[in-house]
Specification:
The chain has 190 residues and is α/β, with parallel strands linked by helices. Helices cover 41% and strands 21% of the residues. The chain has helices at 4-14, 27-36, 51-61, 73-78, 82-89, 119-126, 137-149, 175-185; strands spanning 2-3, 20-23, 41-43, 67-72, 94-100, 103-104, 110-111, 130-134, 154-161.
Length: 190
């Protein structure tokens, strides 16, 4: 298992300046914000379960930019209908990363059902052309490099531990600021 914040640091280290990053509500957005706040990040504040559908639309709108979706297992489970839609639409520029700690950490660490439902297998069954299930940094690095080498959509399931970062800041931008900054990073048609 990988500490989630370490996985996020590695993922964000892989991001290019023009790439777009969508992060789900809760701790994942807080860790992305603390690790590398940038205009190309969209923090989904208070919208659990919507990151993958938003990411799909954005990837289709901006085919010349890579779109990275970072969500937890709880968020992915809430939007299971989006997985086959992503696979059917096949945006080659989408990298969908599920940070699976088998819990709803932001609401108190209640267990999710992802210990019984393998989201990587679900993604493969839905038709993602590239699926990786990783549980160490080397596997994550390899999966990220694979996402550079071939068209997606890519699904990377990262088995992560519950490892809260003490004193981690909340996203300090208002929703309007997040929208406006991000809009300037999107290079889609006017």
């Amino acid at each position: 298992m990988i500490d989630r914040v370490i996985a996020i640091e590695r993922i964000l280290g892989h991001i290019q300046k023009e790439d777009l990053v969508l992060s789900t509500t809760g701790m994942i957005s807080r860790e992305v914000f603390t690790t590398d706040d940038r205009p190309g990040n969209f923090y989904m504040i208070g919208s659990m379960g919507l990151a993958s559908s938003f990411g799909l639309g954005l990837a289709l709108l901006t085919p010349e930019q890579r779109t990275f979706v970072l969500e937890g297992d709880g968020s992915a489970l809430m939007s299971m209908g989006t997985l086959p839609l992503i696979a059917a639409e096949r945006p080659g520029n989408l990298v969908h990363i599920i940070l699976d700690n088998e819990a709803y950490e932001s609401t108190g660490g209640q267990p999710s059902i992802s210990s019984k439902v393998d989201l990587a297998e679900v993604g493969a069954s839905c038709g993602y052309p590239s699926v990786a299930r990783v549980d160490d940094i080397e596997g994550l690095e390899s999966a990220l490099l694979e996402s550079d080498a071939s068209p997606g959509p890519h699904l990377i399931l990262v088995k992560a531990g519950i490892a809260p970062v003490e004193g981690i800041a909340r996203v300090s931008h208002s929703p309007t600021e997040i929208r406006d900054r991000f809009k300037g990073s999107v290079q889609g048609p006017e």
